[in-house]
């Protein structure tokens, strides 16, 4: 009886709390000299409630820490709280971080004005995020203290705008952002703020700087950077908790995770490319399925902005797909019937779905489209214009036959006087 | 040689009278040509037949060219070419037949000329029909 109960609860727990799309073994870097772990207890317990397996490592401990064992990544997620000193640069170099990230690990990085380790900075710089160096602090002399307004909010796909208005921060650093499309800015610095450091120029002015930003690479591994440790702290958790949990859910792949599956294309009558290769101007249909991870399982992903491209260097077609059938967890989108271009060559059938805050879903299939064989062109008698030319040809031939008949039956006159007449002329 | 001294004597006179003489000459030449042509044709029904066919070919070729110009598209170009070429080819064959009907070439009797005309025409038609597509 007891074992049944245990199995039931285990099953229930596993079912309800399997929040992330991948496993959730997480390493938390922190620094005892700056903040005790206790000051993040709300944040960490929220993660634990969602079945995160947390390992802790304090930067001032002498123990060694490895993110990899040989080629194998030991952790799925990495949380880097503000860390002081140069020890961390040797312990976890920017190269190691990049390797971890390229391998698919997700990273939540938090820096504060007094603690911006070089390895973290170099790593973020490679992504196009440029946090202010150590010593720079965001101040707002107009409003007196940092007040986040909902107009500073930049992205509602990662985190709902209602969570941003209550954010309270004591101190923060800001980051400048590159304008690459993998960066999704979340929260800009207040308009009246600037970054100050004694004896140096300001790092960013007004909403030029950012307090929180997200990054997603082409393998869909995610990074989020927060400019203040106050986001996570217990004392402001009532105000910031929802915001930071939404970001944690996003960065650790609990939400906005989509995938495209089953991209296929075929003739209108259903025969595939393999059976009958395409030739120019064939009528074909393209369809692709999308699924979204809802925290427990894959469900159909409903949207209206999936586009299909048929390209050979340039897109010959760019069609917005219409929602079609739904099968289990997959929503299919279809072009409907369309005609291949009057141009032969090697074409790519492609859906390149890249939306801010969502996993990038790319499907490509390269197929040659052949030209017409000599026997496949329209015959002249199928072309209405040719009727004029054809009828003239046949009328000439018909007239020729009539001419022959008349010519033979006409009396052969040998006109000698006329001939002599002509000679005289 | 005779017109030359004539012209020299004419040069002092006005340009209009010179032009007048030219048109006069031309009219005269045209009248004579027409007259001799009518004589020639009325005396030989076959020549008349050949000329009617030639005129017909010119009309057909003109109709096709006009059509192509009007729709501003050469699209079934092969069909147009074969339609036009059959007219031109047939015209050429007819003219060469006409020359021989009128006055046989040396060593080529009229009947042989006619036979050659038929064979050449058949080859032309065959080629044209295969050139349509």
UniProtKB/TrEMBL annotation, chain A:
Transmembrane segments annotated in the record for this chain: 388-414
Cellular localization per UniProt: Endoplasmic reticulum membrane; Membrane
Domain (OST48 middle): residue spans on this chain: 267-409
Protein's membrane topology: Single-pass type I membrane protein
Keyword Manganese among UniProt keywords: no
GO cellular component: oligosaccharyltransferase complex
Residues covered by the OST48 N-terminal domain: 25-251
GO molecular function, one term: transferase activity
Listed pathway(s): Protein modification; protein glycosylation
Keywords for the protein's UniProt record, in alphabetical order: Endoplasmic reticulum, Membrane, Signal, Transferase, Transmembrane, Transmembrane helix
GO terms of biological process kind: protein N-linked glycosylation via asparagine
Entries under Pfam families matching the protein: OST48_MD, OST48_N
Signal peptide coordinates: 1-18
Signal listed as a keyword: yes
Record family assignment: Belongs to the DDOST 48 kDa subunit family.
Function, in words: Subunit of the oligosaccharyl transferase (OST) complex that catalyzes the initial transfer of a defined glycan (Glc(3)Man(9)GlcNAc(2) in eukaryotes) from the lipid carrier dolichol-pyrophosphate to an asparagine residue within an Asn-X-Ser/Thr consensus motif in nascent polypeptide chains, the first step in protein N-glycosylation. N-glycosylation occurs cotranslationally and the complex associates with the Sec61 complex at the channel-forming translocon complex that mediates protein translocation across the endoplasmic reticulum (ER).
Assembly mode: Component of the oligosaccharyltransferase (OST) complex.
PANTHER family: DOLICHYL-DIPHOSPHOOLIGOSACCHARIDE--PROTEIN GLYCOSYLTRANSFERASE 48 KDA SUBUNIT (PTHR10830:SF0)
Protein name: Dolichyl-diphosphooligosaccharide--protein glycosyltransferase subunit WBP1
The organism of origin for this protein: Zygosaccharomyces mellis
Gene behind this protein: WBP1
From TrEMBL, chain B:
Organism superkingdom: Eukaryota
Transmembrane segments: 49-71, 77-101, 113-132
GO cellular component terms attached to this protein's record: oligosaccharyltransferase complex
Protein topology in the membrane: Multi-pass membrane protein
UniProt keyword annotations, A-Z: Endoplasmic reticulum, Membrane, Transferase, Transmembrane, Transmembrane helix
Primary localisation category: endoplasmic reticulum
Compartment(s) where it occurs, according to its Swiss-Prot or TrEMBL record: Endoplasmic reticulum membrane
Pathway annotation from the record: Protein modification; protein glycosylation
GO biological process, one term: protein N-linked glycosylation
Role according to the record: Subunit of the oligosaccharyl transferase (OST) complex that catalyzes the initial transfer of a defined glycan (Glc(3)Man(9)GlcNAc(2) in eukaryotes) from the lipid carrier dolichol-pyrophosphate to an asparagine residue within an Asn-X-Ser/Thr consensus motif in nascent polypeptide chains, the first step in protein N-glycosylation. N-glycosylation occurs cotranslationally and the complex associates with the Sec61 complex at the channel-forming translocon complex that mediates protein translocation across the endoplasmic reticulum (ER). All subunits are required for a maximal enzyme activity.
Family statement: Belongs to the DAD/OST2 family.
Official protein name in the record: Dolichyl-diphosphooligosaccharide--protein glycosyltransferase subunit OST2
Taxonomic source organism: Zygosaccharomyces mellis
């Amino acid at each position: 009886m007891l074992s049944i109960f245990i199995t039931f609860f285990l099953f229930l727990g596993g079912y309800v709390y399997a929040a992330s799309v991948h496993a959730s073994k997480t390493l938390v870097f922190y620094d005892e000299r700056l903040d005790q772990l206790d000051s993040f207890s709300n944040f960490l317990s929220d993660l634990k409630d969602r079945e995160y397996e947390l390992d802790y490592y304090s930067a001032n401990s002498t123990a060694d820490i490895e993110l990899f064992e040989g080629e194998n990544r030991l952790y799925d997620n990495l949380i880097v709280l503000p860390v002081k000193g140069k020890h961390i640069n040797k312990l976890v170099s920017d190269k190691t971080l990049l390797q971890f990230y390229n391998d698919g690990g997700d990273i939540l990085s938090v820096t504060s004005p007094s603690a911006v380790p070089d390895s973290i900075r170099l790593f973020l710089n490679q992504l196009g995020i440029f946090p202010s160096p150590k010593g720079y602090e965001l101040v707002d002399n107009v409003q007196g203290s940092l007040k986040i307004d909902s107009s500073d909010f930049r992205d509602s796909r990662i985190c709902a705008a209602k969570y941003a208005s209550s954010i309270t921060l004591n101190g923060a650093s800001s980051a400048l952002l590159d304008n690459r499309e993998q960066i999704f800015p979340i929260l800009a610095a207040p308009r009246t703020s600037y970054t100050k450091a004694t004896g140096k120029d300001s790092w960013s002015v007004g909403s030029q700087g950012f307090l929180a930003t997200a990054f997603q690479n082409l393998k869909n591994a995610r990074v989020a950077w927060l400019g203040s440790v106050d986001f996570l702290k217990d004392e402001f958790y009532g105000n910031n908790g929802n915001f930071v949990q939404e970001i944690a859910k996003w960065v650790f792949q609990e939400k906005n995770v989509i995938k495209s599956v089953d991209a296929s294309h075929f003739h209108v009558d259903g025969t595939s490319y393999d059976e009958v290769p395409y030739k120019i101007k064939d009528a074909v249909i393209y369809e692709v399925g999308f699924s979204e991870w809802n925290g427990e399982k894959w469900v159909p992903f409903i949207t209206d902005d999936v586009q299909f491209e048929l390209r050979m260097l340039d897109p010959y077609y760019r069609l917005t797909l219409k929602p079609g059938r739904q099968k289990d967890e997959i929503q299919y989108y279809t072009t409907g019937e369309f005609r291949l271009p009057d141009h032969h060559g090697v074409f790519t059938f492609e859906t390149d779905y890249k939306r801010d805050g969502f996993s990038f879903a790319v499907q490509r299939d390269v197929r040659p489209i052949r030209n017409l064989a000599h026997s496949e062109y329209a015959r002249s008698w199928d072309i209405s214009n040719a009727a004029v030319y054809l009828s003239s040809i046949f009328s000439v031939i018909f007239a020729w036959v009539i001419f022959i008949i008349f010519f033979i039956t006409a009396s052969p006159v040998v006109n000698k006087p006329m001939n002599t007449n002509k000679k005289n002329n | 040689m005779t017109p030359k001294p004539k012209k020299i004597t004419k040069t002092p006179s006005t340009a209009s009278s010179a032009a007048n003489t030219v048109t006069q000459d031309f009219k005269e030449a045209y009248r004579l040509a027409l007259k001799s042509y009518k004589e020639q044709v009325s005396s030989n029904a076959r020549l008349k037949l050949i000329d009617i066919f030639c005129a017909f070919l010119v009309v057909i070729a003109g109709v096709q060219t006009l059509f192509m110009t009007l729709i501003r598209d050469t699209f079934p170009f092969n069909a147009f070419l074969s339609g036009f070429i059959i007219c031109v080819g047939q015209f050429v064959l007819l003219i060469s037949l006409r020359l021989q009907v009128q006055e046989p070439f040396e060593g080529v009797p009229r009947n042989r000329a006619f036979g050659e005309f038929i064979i050449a025409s058949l080859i032309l038609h065959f080629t044209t029909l295969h050139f349509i597509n």
